[in-house]
């Protein structure tokens, strides 16, 4: 028995998220089917976490146990030949049997992208939330330090969260405004990318933080409301859940993997 | 009667090119239908040129004559509300009645994008040609100066070209290699963007130049073959026509527009 760790990139537009659902058509389903076609094994893969329907992944790890003897360097091309073109396995390595893509994860980073221009970018239409209204980025920046550290994030979790604890640690947040792609003659605020890194995230957590940040940017709430919202530990004190298509799992980091 | 000049951006994946075809489903058809819905007029728009099926446009000008009195600043949002999400009108301005988006054009720039990485980028899968094989970019660069200037481009034109003259002037060519998006742990050459600017382009011309450039990059022909191919004035001496999805009309430039 071998334990294989792989990373996958996917355009989530056409999927009901990563993890298998009763309704089918998830990224996990497609990967398991590709493995079945390749090795004949009907096995379960284990993702580093879930993603919601419509959310994308630049690089999401998953692992599984296999009896297949296919050399590790041949797995990527073999699986990609059996996957739809919006799902691609990027890397594959053999890891100790004790390694677990979710439990061993140390840091996860998500990116949420907002198109602040008057008109959407047709080439990014499934990957950016369109918000042409004026955003006060300074106010948004001022609210971010309140998120850093270890807090109970109940205010920023879906009411349907089933986790025993809502305590998570945020290590880093960052807003990057990119105006490099602006087309001459079009009015625009550019693209706003919000990056957030933590030890783990609750259901809808990044999207609710984003919804709250947007209300701060719109002047509907003060930057300090990020602090009072956290302290309230009540979902209704936060902003709305931002649309899923702007969200991308950016990276998942592990400590050095040893046997 | 007013003459309106607009620019449009489109993801060409789902269209049979810009210009109206007997089979329908072109970008022009959708824009004319949106104008019809908005003003009631059944008119013809005039593009700055054609694009092949599957080719994209970052910014393509078109113009049309209208009796509508809708203020020019309201046209973009009004048309975009009636267009599919992969077609967006970016700018609109009133121009003299003598202005013609194709005949008045001075310089056109196309970009052709190649993904040289081992595995495609799922988010760019419809906008990049995948070429994981090793490319000698230096050899490709060496061949580019032969294209500059005024030449008969018969070797680089579709055999179905109906133009009386195949003489065109190329002002500038450029290859930009972008490795910024490379994902750690994946092997890659990065993304190669080829930009070419000229006073006009024949049918398939950029794609045939690209197909020839690729053979030079693969070592199948010498950089100097760009010169001998041009001189031969024979389509069969050039490389194959590169896939349409990597091609994007980048920009069209005019002299200052005056009345």
UniProtKB/TrEMBL annotation, chains A, B:
It comes from the Bacteria. One of its GO terms (biological process) is tRNA pseudouridine synthesis. Residues 8-101, 146-255 form the Pseudouridine synthase I TruA alpha/beta domain. CDD domains: PseudoU_synth_EcTruA. It catalyses: uridine(38/39/40) in tRNA = pseudouridine(38/39/40) in tRNA. Substrate binds at residue 110. Keywords: Isomerase, tRNA processing. Its EC number is 5.4.99.12. It holds the Pfam family PseudoU_synth_1. GO terms for molecular function: RNA binding; tRNA pseudouridine(38-40) synthase activity. InterPro entries: PsdUridine_synth_cat_dom_sf (IPR020103), PsdUridine_synth_TruA (IPR001406), PsdUridine_synth_TruA_a/b_dom (IPR020097), PsdUridine_synth_TruA_C (IPR020095), TruA/RsuA/RluB/E/F_N (IPR020094). Formation of pseudouridine at positions 38, 39 and 40 in the anticodon stem and loop of transfer RNAs. Belongs to the tRNA pseudouridine synthase TruA family. NCBIfam families: hisT_truA (TIGR00071). This is tRNA pseudouridine synthase A. The lineage of its organism: Bacteria, Bacillati, Bacillota, Bacilli, Bacillales. The gene is truA.
């Amino acid at each position: 028995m071998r334990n294989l760790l792989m990373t996958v990139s996917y355009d989530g537009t056409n999927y009901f998220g990563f993890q298998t659902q009763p309704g089918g058509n998830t990224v996990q389903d497609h990967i398991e089917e590709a493995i079945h076609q390749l090795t004949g094994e009907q096995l379960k893969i284990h993702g580093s976490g879930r993603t919601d329907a419509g959310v994308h992944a630049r690089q999401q790890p998953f692992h599984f146990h296999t009896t297949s003897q296919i050399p590790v360097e041949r797995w990527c091309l073999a699986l990609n030949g059996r996957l739809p073109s919006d799902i691609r396995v990027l890397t594959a390595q053999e890891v100790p049997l004790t390694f677990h893509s979710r439990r061993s994860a140390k840091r996860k980073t998500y990116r949420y992208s907002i198109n602040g221009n008057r008109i959407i970018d047709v080439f990014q239409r499934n990957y950016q939330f369109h918000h042409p209204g004026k955003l006060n980025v300074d106010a948004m920046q001022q609210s971010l330090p309140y998120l850093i550290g270890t807090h109970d994030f109940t205010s920023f979790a879906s009411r349907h969260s089933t986790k025993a604890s809502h305590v998570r640690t945020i290590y880093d947040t960052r807003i990057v405004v990119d105006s490099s792609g602006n087309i001459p003659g079009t009015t625009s605020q550019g693209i706003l990318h919000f990056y957030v890194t933590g030890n783990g995230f609750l259901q809808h957590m990044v999207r609710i933080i984003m919804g709250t940040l947007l209300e701060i940017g719109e002047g509907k709430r003060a930057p300090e409301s990020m602090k009072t919202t956290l302290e309230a530990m009540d979902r209704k004190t936060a902003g709305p859940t931002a649309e899923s298509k702007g969200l991308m799992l950016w990276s998942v980091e592990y400590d050095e993997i040893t046997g």
